[in-house]
Amino acid sequence: MKLNVAALLALSVPCFAQQDPNAVEAGRLVFRMSCAGCHGLHATGGRGGPDLTRGTYSTGDADKDLFSVISNGVPGTEMPSFRGALEDANISRLVAYVRSLSHAGAVPVKGDRTAGEKLFWGKGSCGQCHRVGMRGTAIGPDLTRAGKQRSLAYLRESVVAPDADLTPGYATIVVVTRDGAKITGVEKGFDNFSARLIDLSGRYYSFLKDDVKSMEREYRSVMPSNYGRMFSANDLDDLLAYLASLGGER
Amino acid sequence: MTRLSLALLLPAAMLAQSGAADWKTYGQNSQGWRYSDLNQIDTKSVSKLAPRWIFQSGMAGGFETTPLVFNGQMFIAGPSNNSWALDLLTGKPLWHVKKTPPARLNLCCGEVNRGFAVLGDRLFRVNIEGTLVALDIRTGATLWETQLADYKKGYSATAAPLIVKNLVVTGIAGAEFGTRGFVDAYNPETGKLVWRFNTVPGEGEPGSETWSGESWKLGGGSTWITGTYDPGLNLIYWGVGNPGPDMDGDVRRGDNLYSCSVVAIDADTGKLKWYYQATPHDVHDWDAISDPVVVDLTMQGRAVKALIQANRNGFFYTLDRATGKVLVAKTYTKVTWAKGIGADGRPILIPNQEPTEEGNFVCPGLGGGHNWSATAYSPQTGLYYFHSSEDCHLFYKTKQGFTEGQWYQASNVEGRAGDHGTGRLLAVDPATGETKWRFDMVSSTSAGVLATAGGLVFSGDGQGYLIAFDARTGKVLWKFQTGGGMVAPPISYALEGKQYIAIAAGGSIMTFALP
Asked: Which of the residues A111, B125, B178, B515 has the least number of beta carbons within 10 Å of its own beta carbon?
């Protein structure tokens, strides 16, 4: 029954927002307290939470979808359920606030998506480390839904300055073995006494700290930092148009 | 030095409650040392330490409990009002009781519990919905249950009670919901309230002048970690949490006593003897709830009755426990909000560190420095062991109206891109505040610490390792991957001449001994 009540309320969200002229401001205050820790103070995406200012969301674009996501959380992600913690009226106010953002800050995509796709899989060789759907390699972050998860500005920064805000869990692990060999790769696990990594050839390694000369986690990306120079400004726009279009379709 | 000659050096009052084979109170003794006299497992033999049994609770995790051990049994106060008695030799459950918590609870941090207290044939624990319960030690049956405060107003209870003479003393949680904290003492036979110390003074009471207007009514000041007791002075020491709302200090001008203070309470009357407020007018959620540990020190050739605390605000304090006077105040982590602690005991503030609309980046972060995780003091090394979180946060405030029972933090924090918090285990000399050794960890941990007469310190990490350190040097001597993150402290006890180490890891209780 509880779910049905929530669904009914969700359907009434736009009405609610129209009826309550203070809903957006009230929602902003709720957002700062309950959401900004992950989605950022201005909802442009934080460390873990996606950008919410683009007017398109990874779990559906309708008001009822937003209400449902806030209420129920998203299984398999860090998004928790706020049912119980937030009154339904406050969830409705959050929906009104998040909706208000999408009209303000959206940056138009300039480039050509098809040309960008060609660059991604061709000149850029991005698929050697990234996956989109079933294509590519899962060494770096999966980009299947990158367009829905991240802002255009964030994606641009990730291409030209991959170290600027490293995706959590994708640091660089450097291990020096007892015989002096240096092995560098993407973090698959790192704790006080062991390290697991995949090098750029896709080979998996696991080490105990006691068995090696040193092991370090460096907060930099193994991704080359020269894409800003390799691509022209137009190329970059095309690539970003492609990335921004990635919404989870397989 | 042999164990016997060391024991002779200890004051009689300290020894009286430190039965080596058992573990009968949250901090091992009422002074909160979390130190075991057992020395079978020592710096040489620890490398052979191996699992003996594992009790699988069937719960996902969240065990913050300190198990109690005596009479050949282990008593576990678990999350979500679950309790168990286990056979100590085999780990098999003897009884399990559960009281289903109310459906809609307003909690800051999960349905956790930190352990039992015991007196005679009764166990005492709090239930998450803010009740204190007496259980029959033979069956787990409820003998009485007393409501500490109304959970619908945002109160909850998580701390292990403390037995002081013939009283069951306990604290309360809920400062994020505009509640008003207290320390209570109950009759163990009847469950009737004997005294209450309100951590936020009422109208006209001393200290009420430190709250603007009627802000005291929502003043917070939770008491969510077990205090300690000095039988010599007959004083109970208890840490008090943040004022409410956490990050908007504008609505509660003044020092906001006794939030973020350690209070010394007369055990018979519940009256305040002294207080020390580490963070006047706190706006960063730096509760002063960390273990207040009763130790006797020699400082500059003088014997000192001290109370030590690694405060969440980033300073380690040694206080005179008879008066509350600050004797040592030294940072143990990065601190950007205060230059130091003045001669009057007040922090010397650095400007522009308060939360604003757009936020200010301040160290330590929301969880402190050292937060609530259990600490250990070793009389063998004279060192105090505790975990620290090496992190900073952007603190921002938001104007928020108050609704009874609803979250009332008046904002939040966020991390900064490129910042990666880490953790540390520290060994601090309480006579000077100097860090003698530290072990850097990849992340902070809520696992507590145990010190033993075997010259060892035990603790866990968030990635599942139980670790044994040389108490003098911090060198790692042994480790074991338990497969479950640890948010509870280890304990030690003896059964049939064998010393054991036990800890809650994930949803399990694990025990270890030598072959």
From this structure: B515
Given an 8 Å threshold on Cβ–Cβ distance, is B406 in contact with A87? Answer: yes
Provide the residue type at B381 as one letter.
T
Burial (CB count <10 Å: 0-12, 13-18, 19+), residue A27: buried
Chain A nearest-CA residue for B245:
A33
Which residues of chain A neighbour B413 with C-beta distances below 8 Å? 37
Number of domains in chain B: 1
Domain of residue B125, CATH code: 2.140.10.10
Helix-strand-coil split of chain B, %, nearest 5 = 5, 40, 55
Q: Tell me which chain A residues have a C-beta less than 8 angstroms from the C-beta of B407.
A: 33-34, 85
Lowest mean pLDDT segment, chosen from A144-153, A168-177, B95-104: A144-153
Taking the Cβ of residue A248 and every Cβ of chain B, the question of whether any pair is shorter than 8 Å is answered with no
Please report the domains of chain A, with CATH numbers, ordered by start residue. Answer: 2-102 (1.10.760.10), 113-161+226-245 (1.10.760.10), 172-218 (2.30.30.100)
Q: What is the DSSP string of B144-163?
A: EEEE-S-GGGT-B--SPPEE
Chain B residues touching residue A29 (CB < 8 angstroms)? 398-400
Q: Please give the residue that has the higher pLDDT: either B158 or B412.
A: B158
- CB contacts, 8 Å: A165 with chain B: 417-418
Helices (H) and strands (E) in chain B, counts: 2, 38
Q: Is the pLDDT of residue B20 over 90?
A: no
In a domain, B97, yes or no: yes
Chain A: give the shortest CA distance to residue B248, in Å: 12
Number of neighbouring beta carbons within 10 Å of residue B90: 10
Nearest CB to B442 within list A32, A164, A192: A192
Q: What is the pLDDT of residues A2-28, one digit of tens each?
A: 333 333 333 334 444 556 778 898 899
Range of the domain at B380: 23-513
Note whether B381 contacts A: Cβ–Cβ < 8 A: no
Ramachandran assignment for B493, one of left (phi > 0), alpha (psi -120 to 50 degrees), beta (any other) = beta
Please state the φ and ψ torsions of residue A164, each to the nearest 5 degrees: -60, -45
Please state, rounded to an integer, the average pLDDT across all residues of chain A. 85
Give the amino acid at B451: A
Half-sphere exposure of A187 (CA within 13 A, CB side): 19
Helices A233-245 & A152-160, crossing angle to 10 degrees? 130
Beta bridge partner(s), residue B186 = B168, B193
Tell me the average pLDDT across B71-86.
Answer: 97
The residues of B annotated with a catalytic role in the active site are 285
* pLDDT surpassing 50 at residue B513: yes
What is the value of pTM for the model shown?
Answer: 0.91
* In the predicted structure, residue B119 carries a pLDDT above the cut 90: yes
Give yes or no for A36 touching B (CB within 8 A).
yes
Give all strands (DSSP E) within chain A, no chain letters. Answer: 131-132, 135-136, 172-177, 182-190, 194-198, 204-208, 212-218
Would residue B96 count as lying in a domain?
Answer: yes
Instruction: Check CB contact of A165 with chain B, cutoff 8 Å.
Output: yes
pLDDT of B171 above 60? yes
How far apart CA A164 and CA A187 sit, in angstroms, is 17
Return the sign of the alpha-carbon dihedral for residues A113, A117, A118, A120.
positive
Q: How far is CA B216 from the centre of its chain?
A: 25
C-alpha distances in Å from residue B224, one per residue of A25, B104, B169, B189, B288: 34, 20, 12, 24, 10
Do A191 and B461 make contact, defined as CB atoms within 8 angstroms? yes
Whether B396 and A41 lie within 8 Å, measured CB to CB? yes
Structure confidence at residue B11 (pLDDT): 38
Tokens of A161: 């300055």
In a domain, B8, yes or no: no
Q: Which residue of A has its CA nearest to B154?
A: A85
Question: Hey, is B504 helix, strand or coil?
Answer: strand
> For residue B323, is it within any domain?
yes
